[in-house]
Design goal:
2 copies of one chain form a homodimer. Chain A is an alpha/beta fold and 207 residues long. Chain A has one domain: 3-Layer(aba) Sandwich (Rossmann fold). Helices cover 35% and strands 19% of the residues of chain A. Chain A is built from 7 helices and 11 strands. In chain A, strands 5-2-1-6-7-11-10 form a 7-stranded mixed beta sheet, sandwiched between helices. A two-stranded antiparallel ribbon of chain A has the order 3-4. A two-stranded parallel sheet of chain A has the order 8-9. In chain A, a hairpin with a 3-residue loop joins strand 10 and strand 11. Chain A is globular, with a radius of gyration of 16 Å. In chain A, 55% of the residues are buried. The mean pLDDT of chain A is 96.
Chain lengths: 207, 207
């Protein structure tokens, strides 16, 4: 079974928040093809923007062109909302409405870093445990008192929603999702292929 | 003093090999602006391709548009050669010639992962210690017997040339270059901003 992964891009997205998970799911496919040649690819990875312009200028000026617009995006099993400068994304009513609509049919909506603010604005984290970049924990608590904000976990997987700590923690969360959906062996082999020190669960963020 | 960083992009570049160092140098600038507002940005980060088409389709299909072509690239103090599927890059005579010409005026040419094969093809690693992705160490040894290939170090900095282990090790090498050129404090603060567990030097790759 192949799960579709859709990674949001936007102007001022944090490069590694988006590219880390993209790398993880892509490498998981390559490792799977090598180690399980008869199996379907575990993931089909897309990127998407919410407007008509598919080019996103990430932080630092890296220009990434999304494969899809929100309107043309096929149903996604896994949605990744990266962080960065998320102000415009937090008030993007088309995106917030889409996230609310999609929640029932999506296996997990995963936010990296300040992407948690987008999920919180969509009302999806009320009463839920969540984390974000260490610099923004207090702000998340203040703005969304109904979210149980946790400081320390590298990531939190609440089943239908998941959140990670800052920037590079998105790699750990994505590896965890590979383990959850395609098995611990593939996740371990993916981390090894990326030469990335990783153990699933329980790891604290080093800040 | 601002140092210019030029990161090569090409079709089938490994996403994290290029985007990891891009993130590190960009975040170092942001952290520097926050902590040392009177100082110049330590880095000016560009991406470049060797042909006329500035769009590179990275592994997994991510489309990244370079800011420069090789012809239009200003002099670079730091050059980063990522890995990926490097066959076409290893036989790109314009690039190999440019690397040989630039070596005298560049502070460091840094290869991530299989980017080491490009430096080796340019004849730049003869008699030098180097490393690469664990999967490719034997091939690097076999093809370039005059390179002293090392298995284990997360990265090796030989002064004018540096190499790293696989994929995510490019983040560690870039953080080391931030320490080398802009100080250990800024490198540590950059790693912390990226929520990335990092200590300079001596760390082994986990494969």
């Amino acid at each position: 079974m192949t799960r579709s992964v859709a990674i949001l891009l936007f102007d001022e997205v944090e490069v590694l928040d988006a590219c880390g998970p993209f790398e993880v799911f892509s490498v998981a496919n390559r490792v799977s093809r090598r180690d399980r040649p008869a199996a379907d690819d575990p993931f089909q990875v897309s990127t998407f923007v919410t407007g008509e312009r598919r080019e996103a200028v990430a932080r630092g000026g890296l220009v990434i062109t999304a494969s899809h617009t929100l309107d043309g995006l096929p149903a996604a099993d896994i949605v990744v909302i990266p962080g960065g400068v998320t102000g415009a994304v937090e008030t993007d009513l088309a995106l917030l409405g889409w996230l609310r609509e999609r929640r029932a049919d999506t296996e997990v909506i995963a936010a990296v870093c300040t992407g948690a603010f987008v999920l919180a604005e969509a009302g999806l984290l009320a009463g839920r445990a969540a984390t974000t970049h260490w610099e923004d924990l207090a702000d998340l608590r203040r703005r969304f008192p109904d979210v149980e904000v946790q400081d320390g976990p590298r990531y939190l997987d609440g089943g239908d929603f998941a959140t990670s700590a800052g920037v590079s923690a998105g790699i750990d969360l994505a590896l965890h999702l590979v383990a959850r959906f395609a098995g611990a062996d593939l996740a371990t082999a993916t981390a090894r292929q990326m030469d990335y020190p990783w153990t699933d669960g329980g790891r604290q963020s080093p800040h």
